[in-house]
Amino acid sequence: MKYLARTATGDALLGNDDGYVRLDAVEPDLDSVREALPRAADGTLGDVADAPADPVPAEDLTFGPPLAEFGKLWGIGLNYEEHAGDLDEQRPEEPASFMKPSTVPTGPGGPIRLPPESQSEHVTAEAELGVVMGRTCRNVDEADFEDVVAGFLPVVDMTAEDVLQRNPRFLTRAKSYDTFLVPGAALAVPEEPLDLASLSVRTEVNGSVEAENEIRNMLFPPAEIVSFHSDVMTLEPGDLFSTGTPGAAHIEPGDDVRAVVESVGVAEAPVTR
Fold first, then answer.
1. Closest listed residue to residue 128, CA positions, set 270, 271, 226, 265
2. CATH number assigned to the domain with residue range 73-272, chosen from the 4 options 3.30.565.10, 3.30.230.10, 3.90.1150.10, 3.90.850.10
3. How does pLDDT run across 49-70, given as a tens digit for each residue?
4. Count of CB atoms within 10 A of residue 34's CB?
5. Do residues 105 and 113 make contact, with C-beta atoms less than 8 angstroms apart?
6. Is residue 250 classed as helix, strand or coil in its secondary structure?
């Protein structure tokens, strides 16, 4: 697995399991992670071994978000049948998608800042697999999914559940408080096709597993999600799909939340108000 990331000061990085080097040490014509996304999608991104210096271990670095700015932020609701049942919701016949504003994401490590109790007293956290687009595309066939996707992220998504329960039309507001999206620090770029169906997604709070399921149990798998939405609008490098959660957990100030996506990574953040 290769990784694309950024330091807290904005330097673009290329990594593997041994550590990270500056992206421009391997790809001299690239100044940013966003510029590297098409090469990640088409499999032409260079290797850490091509850098003139040894990689720096991840634990010796401080990471910012993997992209200075994401593009469109799509969320998919009720994408595991078991989770839909938990919420007493019927299985959707098409992807139940919504969008979040660009101001929502916080950096790796958070924190997640809960809104004032006067606005919401019941916020939930949800672990999800994030899919980051690598190419500008439209009307993508599901079979071409790997050709247009740059890589994958663990994501913690949040919902003000009490706001949403008052009226389903309040979904955008319930999902759009600042810091209500925590991406992982590194974009995982598979060197070989990744068997997503066999991987698990897990929501943890304070070290306790609150929900877990395998991607094979999604109602709409990632390839179908990308294809479906590409028939609606042009997708661009840096667009992010949060593909749904196996289950949500109520969170309070002082909690620590983790999204664990097998073979992809971990996103983690403390909760404050």
1. 265
2. 3.90.850.10
3. 999 989 999 999 999 999 999 9
4. 22
5. no
6. strand
Give the tens place of pLDDT for each residue, 5-44.
999 999 999 999 999 999 999 999 999 999 999 999 999 9
Q: How many CA atoms lie within 13 A of 76 on its CB side?
A: 32
Q: 270-273 — which CB contacts under 8 Å span 24+ positions?
A: 270/110, 270/111, 270/112, 271/110, 271/111, 271/112, 271/114, 271/125, 272/111, 272/112, 272/113, 272/114, 273/113, 273/114, 273/115, 273/116, 273/117
- pLDDT over 60 at 84, yes or no: no
Q: Residues, the chain, total? A: 273
**Mean of the per-residue pLDDT values of the chain:** 95
What's the pLDDT tens digit per position in 154-190? Answer: 999 999 999 999 999 999 999 999 999 999 999 999 9
Domain residue spans in the chain? 2-60, 73-272
